[in-house]
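Supplementary notes for students who missed Thursday's class. We covered one full example, reproduced here. Read the sequence, then the structure, then the short commentary at the end.
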Amino acid sequence: MKSNVIFKIIIFFSGLALSPHLAFADTLAYRCWSFNVDGAGGRCTSPSLIFYSNGQYELGSEKGTYGMRDGKVILSESQFRGLGRLDENGHQIIFEYDSNGRRHTVTYVLAPGAVR
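Structure (token representation):
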């Protein structure tokens, strides 16, 4: 079962799921797991990051398109986050960025039942 989920995630982000004949998943949902500023952890209150097989994403009121480049997740409308790093099994997306002179790390994890 675990390898099936990993396969669906890889196919989804590789762009193959954009074909209606190869759509293994309609959506992927990642919930915010941790929020760090300069190494100090905090409660993550960010909304879930939802990816749709049509190339669109939602993060609260932020909506746009997503893509992959060199193993990095690109969100078209992200103002701060920059590129996200997808871990080797696709279960986490980590965004690392600087804002107001401080280093931020936000980690999203694949939500239970998120591969539909």
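Commentary. Confidence is low (pLDDT under 50) at residues 16-23. The chain has one domain: 2-110. If anything here is unclear, bring it to office hours.
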